Amino acid sequence: MQKAIDEYINILISRGLSENTITAYKKDLLQLQEFLKKYFEDEKVKLVQITRLFLRDFMRYLSDNDRNNRTLARKATTMKNFFQFCEKNKLLEKNPAKNLHIPKFEKKLPKYFSEKEMEELLNIPDLSSKFGIRNRAILELIYSSGLRISEISTCKMGQIDLDEKIIKIIGKGNKERIVPISSKAKISLRNYENIRDKFTSRFSGESYFLSKSGRPLSPNEVREILSRYLNLVAKTKGYSPHSIRHSFATHLLARGADLRAVQEMLGHSNLSTTEIYTHLTLKDLKKVYERTHPRGKKEN
Question: Domain residues for 72?
Answer without folding.
Answer: 2-88
